[in-house]
Protein 1
Amino acid sequence: MPISRPQTATPSTNDLLQMYRALWRIRVFEGQVQRLAAAGEVPGFPHLSTGQEAVAVGVCAHLSPRDILFTSHRGHGHVLAKGADVEATFAEILGRDTGVCRGRGGSMHLVDAAHGVLGATGVVGGNLPLAAGAAWAAQARGEPHISVAFFGDGATGAGVFHETVNLAVLWKLPVLFVCENNGYAEFTSREEHSNVKHVSAFARPYDLTAQTIDGNDVLAVHAAAADAIAQLRRGAGPYLLECMTYRMAGHFVGDAQHYRSKEELAAMREKDPLERLKRHLLEHDVAPSQLEAIGEQAKQEVQQAVERARAARHPDPATVREYVYSSPSLAALAEAP
Amino acid sequence: MSQTFIEILRRALDEELARDASVHLLGEDVAAGGAFGVTRGLAQKHGAQRVRNTPISEAAITGMATGAAVCGLRPVLEIMFIDFATLSLDCLVNQSAKYRYMSGGQLSVPMVVRTQAGAAGGAAAQHSQSLEAWFVHVPGLVVVAPSSPVEAYGLLKSAIRLGDPVLFIEHKRLYTMREDLPDEAELPPIGKARIAREGEDVTLIAYSAMVLTALEAADELARGGISAEVLDLRTLLPLDMQTIAASVTKTHRAVIAHEAVQNGGVGAEIAARIGSDLFDELDAPVMRVACPFVPIPFAPELERALLPGREKIVRAVRELLGEQGH
């Protein structure tokens, strides 16, 4: 797969500091999810993106609130990077009435329409055609925004991935496919479930523009996403960005991870996107104290939001039948016993 | 001049495309007119961007229609046979139906999935099924099954304007049926059943093509002095229990007829609801007329042998009244 050089100017130090802050927010946020899940405060089984945050941050840095994002069951990072409110997102993960979806969606189904987060699907691959459909709607109405789908390499095992890519290219849809290739589909390594090493290899027969990049290097993600999104905004059709990354957390909170070695985990910690950006910034004369302050601020901000979310009201069981249908007459019919 | 079911559907789509710029058609062959000619000429009239052909990718096109609907388009997706909707199920069941609920009311899915069902003419086991009961089991979906061209005209327009995901099931046996479209037809609301024929002694509850069969049965029963009321459910989800209850309260007897297999069918739900809500009104057990628990066969004589017809309904009613000493 040819690697094209980014055309865009390198981000300013200020941009990088913002990304550093965004990485920290996700890391701390998911740390809190993990802590509270272990304490039994989080219903269900949340999936963490710890270690993969650079993909979310590097891509979303280029998106406006009107641009549309679809994510998967592992979507906390994408949602936060897109600008969703930290407290309302955490409240949703806790199943509170103040959550973005009023406690109806939870960790795997985060939707924040005001910030362009239009869907998160718990069935792997299901978000891909939704994102293409949103891109089609934008194209049909002559709207300038784009649609982005985040998914894991496991999704390429689903037929709907191939169906969607084919249609997106055929219709020249402004949709960016961002694959987080973390090497695992649930507990099974990529080698065990496909002979195709790189997801970007699937692009060629469909004539889809694609790149494979280091997804743990936020600078690389930022640059490649700039290129890809520029193509989309020109109306030149879809783009596939395969970001090689690593899931530092288990498949879900509580996953014992017997399928990978401690040595493998330790090696990947060396490639932690946060540490790498930190090293880069220190090499570029940013003071360590400034970076510490950013980390500390992110921690404080998230912790305060988490405490507010924990204190928020629970949904009223009497409202459990709301939101099934938009038409009031149908809602009434459906509410019959 | 009378028009066929297909022509009247085309007219409804044509008018909705003209009325609302957010209405878009998509599906396999739709720009070329569709497998049954329902969309013939619409791409030429409304543009290739409004009436779009798709590959044979039911999972993706159902997902795309849903994603576009979330963003404000009103897609009308054609799934050529309901048997192929098996490939759309992840999206319909896990996404389209639950979008509004899972998002806490932030988003909804104003989408219509037009599909075609039922047995006729040796289409065999994978092009003849009546699978509506699967969809009726999913909160958030709406399931509509019209019984005539005029009904289909109004119900399709209402479905397109509704704002929730609708599975619109057309019966292939009705496609050649002709009717006159009244000049000023009021659009029937979704979720409201219709009394297709008034009667006193028994309520025949049906939908889709089986309404015609029930009306034929009612004619025959009338010749024997039995007055049957025929209800056309029109919408299977949500179910209009009010209209059913009013009729059964009057006739005290009910027979539910559908082409789908009896086991776990729509009739089972209606029978259970009548049994629990209207037990004191009943003079006889609720009866069901449906397909035996067998796939649809190919050979015409086998297909005919399986499908529940007028005779089966008449027999059920006679049996039911016989128990009452008629």
Protein 2
Amino acid sequence: MQNPLARVRGQGSSGGGTQHWRSQRYSALILLLSAAWVLWLGVSLAGADYLTASGVMSSPINAGMAILMAGAVFYHTQLGLQVVIEDYVHIPALEFALLLFVRFACLVAFLISAIAALKLALGA
Amino acid sequence: MSTSKRPMSPYMLGPYYKFQITSVLSILNRLTGVFMSVVTAPLLLYWLIALASGEEAYAGLSLWLGSPLGKLVIAASVFSFSFHLFGGIRHLIWDAGWMMEMPQVRLSGWLAIIASVLLSLIVLGAGL
């Protein structure tokens, strides 16, 4: 379906479009907007005991923010590490294995974060 | 392997290029990003797991975070976060097509350094 217009719109010799670049910026925007929340959380829970910390994380707002943040963090991490690997790892098999590992690790990390945050919020 | 014989663009570090605020901040944005990927994000994930696992796991992590190594990791994470935050804001401003002239790029670079040091000191000061 690639016609000259698609090429003009940025799908050049790389074969891909601007999807990666855009996704990196959109996730950055989410992280930028939630930076104040994570700074507040870090400062207010620094050195906090178990009851205080679990109490704060049981609030639906904080649980929701934690899940949103985890999604944006591990998505942005995957996109960023992907570029670093593509730039510096020039052994094709190793590059492929690392890219696969990073995707897998980031997905698992997000799932675990979401389940942990839900467990704290639901008090299970 | 044939790939190693291909011409490559000159490596930005080493004797070929003079160190400049543009190149130093560019590599620092990458380094802080990789550091947070490898250290800070796994630590935050482990904090959440420990908190969800119960009092004993959380107490163990708290003890480690209070140790000199734990404090060093926290300080490095806070600085990396601050620097990557302001470095990222610079990138988003450039993506909008603003501040692209060299004097403006150098100015925003210095502002990002000052802002990230200040934010790190404020956060670390408030958290201690």
